[in-house]
Amino acid sequence: MLAVASLVLASTTPVIAQEARQRWEQMCQIRKDKLDLILPQAMRENGIDMWIVASREGHDDPNAALLGDGYVGDIGYYVFADPGEGRIERAAMGVGGAAFDQCPLYDVRKSPAELKAYVAQRNPRRIGINIASEIGTADGLSHSLHERLRETLGPDLSARLVSAEKLVSDFRSRHSATEIAAFARAGEYSRTIAERALSSEVITPGKTTTGDVAWWMMEQLHKEGLGNSFGIPSIYILGPGPRGPVSGDHVIQRGDLITMDWGVNFLTAYTDMKRMAYVLKAGENAPPPGVQRAFDKALEIRRMILDVIKPGITAGDALAAVNSRVAQTPGLALGRYDDPVADPKVSDVVIGSHSVGDLGHGSGPSMADFNPLRMTYTLQPSNFLSIELFLYTPVPEWGTRKIKIPLEDNGVVTERGLEWAYPANSRILLVK
Known about the structure:
With 432 residues, the chain is α/β, with parallel strands linked by helices. The chain folds into 2 domains: 18-171, Creatinase/prolidase N-terminal domain (Creatine Amidinohydrolase, Chain A, domain 1, 3-Layer(aba) Sandwich), CATH 3.40.350.10; 174-431, Alpha-Beta Complex (Creatine Amidinohydrolase), CATH 3.90.230. The chain is built from 12 helices and 18 strands. The protein has helices spanning 2-12, 18-45, 64-67, 98-102, 115-122, 143-158, 165-173, 177-197, 210-224, 289-308, 315-327, 372-375, and strands at residues 50-55, 71-81, 89-96, 108-110, 127-129, 161-163, 227-228, 234-239, 257-262, 264-266, 269-270, 273-279, 332-334, 347-351, 384-394, 402-414, 417-420, 429-431. Strands 4-3-2-1-5-6 form a 6-stranded mixed β-sheet. Strands 13-14-15-16-17 form a 5-stranded mixed β-sheet, with helices on one face. Strand 3, helix 4 (98-102) and strand 4 form a beta-alpha-beta unit. Helix 2 crosses helix 7.
């Protein structure tokens, strides 16, 4: 009877959601560290005495998740005032909710109607607001909220409003130890799911489509309670035949070289990575030698990128340094994405090592010419970078057409240079 009673009790006792609780506690610690350790430096370096972040129900600012989230009704403000030294004073106005209250981050809780009096009492010289020319995460203030903020503050205080674009970039792209730990875990999820996807566990040659692989990966995200960086993963064929539709109905065949591009979201961290796999033909135990040589050449170029990364220089200067080295290497030339030159004696190189972490394409210093403003930003310890490159080179076994060899993995800038956040790709995966 006691055993039966125990079974009944066990079946009716609520199961404590350990993983959900642990993730919430990790998120709370990340927010505390972000506001305690990162925000003061970011505000003072950028000469911002006060930072006002406005949200409205149904229109959260992109930074709300880092600032504590919380429920906002009509309008809410997260306000950060710098007393000149020590910690930044933090005020939440019109923001609340159980989860918000259980992770205490704010010194002052007020109504949005008290904003003007609060700002006037602290008398800041420069008030940062989220309007930006390039960085989307720093451009969350809508036109109507901007107008309302100016009306609320009045002409004198409104004259002190300035763009917080660089502040937001620094706040989001510099990281505490808790954020680095979350980023590394996101990387492990990313590579583990990707490498399982590009294996015989998922792929049956002659049957499985590139779309099947992509949706299998999406299912793993669902099971693990993870988000993604870019939507459905991009799965396509590099050679020897045509690439076919990305993540579509192309049936994977023996002899195909497959690539995958995707990213995982865990807590505040987002990744962006690639993996490659070769589908073995009967009697093969390795990719064609030309494919392996092309992959090895891409690894050499990745080493060139790592050699130039160090804190204290701009991302643009780092990119210029590696581009110069590529241009001076016999047989290599700087190229254009997916538009290689016809000369088979030249291998085209495209480098786009962008910021990552707070999004798949992040907000910080970026070694990529598609982020011109972020190329002017200085690399700092704890910045996250996606080391991304494309090599276009002939594979003799496949004729004269150049194939694309993409490499991409994520790391952390340290005083020593760039350190991987998880084991980076070092091989072509094999599908039997």
